[in-house]
Amino acid sequence: MYENPFSRKFLHNLNPAYKSPLRSTISGPLLEEVHSNIIARTDLLVSSLDRINVSMDKSSNIIGNRICNISVYLKYDALYYISEDIYVKRMTSPAAAQWLRNHLLTLSNHHLDYINSIANDTCKTMQGM
Question: H or E element: which one contains 125?
Answer without folding.
Answer: helix 124-128
